Amino acid sequence: MITGERVRLRADERADVPWFVQWLNDPEVTEHLSFFLPLSQAVEERWFEDMLKLPREQQPLAIEARCAEGWKLIGNCGWMNFDWPSRSAEVGLFIGDKTCWDQGFGTEVMRLLLKHGFETLNLNRVFLRVHETNLRGIHVYEKVGFQHEGRLRQAVYQHGRYQDMLIMSVLSPEWVKMDHR
């Protein structure tokens, strides 16, 4: 388990699948994700089975928040697109439980992922892609040290219009210099 002050990251479990289906069928949750079709329980169960075949470092992690009753599932995160010779990987997350939005959970999760990426996986570069309209996400990523690296022009079609996809990254030497509080 990867544990912070208010959140922890753990392996996804089969019991999480119904929550993922609920969240990933909510247009507010998927507004800045690459989901645009309804998701069935069967499709998500197949995703879960396929995910278990991935190397451990590529398997997504459930996000849990500490609450009065214990730990509560609030979202999912993980690593993808590893380039081991270059020590680079892409990271992503979503908070599906909307009651937990705008409370700093995404910031803490991203800090935990960066710590894990640089200090455990020995990555040199962590990057992500974010829709230009995802202002809350961009704010979080800048706050934890991501730098704007590029712009894929009109790379996303959503709600009848094209929008740009931003590329952001953090390098290991930058991470080492940061205050991680």
The number of helical elements comes to: 6
Show unreliable segments: none
The portion of residues assigned to helices is 25-40%
Q: How much β-strand is present in the residues?
A: 35-45%
Mean pLDDT, all residues: 92
Tell me what the structure shows.
This protein has 181 residues and is of the alpha+beta class. It contains 6 helices and 8 strands. It has one domain: Aminopeptidase, CATH 3.40.630.30. Helices cover 29% and strands 36% of the residues. The chain has an 8-stranded mixed beta sheet with strand order 1-2-3-4-5-6-8-7, sandwiched between helices. The model has no long low-confidence stretch (mean pLDDT 92).
Concise synopsis of the structure shown:
With 181 residues, this protein is α+β, with helices and mostly antiparallel strands.
For the structure shown, list the relevant keywords.
single chain; 181 residues; alpha+beta; Aminopeptidase; 8-stranded mixed beta sheet; 6 helices; 29% helix; globular
Layout of secondary structure:
Elements: E1 2-3, E2 7-11, H1 17-24, H2 27-30, H3 41-51, E3 61-67, E4 70-83, E5 88-95, H4 105-119, E6 125-131, H5 135-143, E7 147-158, E8 161-171, H6 172-177
Parallel strand pairs: 5-6
Antiparallel strand pairs: 1-2, 2-3, 3-4, 4-5, 6-8, 7-8
Helix pairs in contact: 1-3
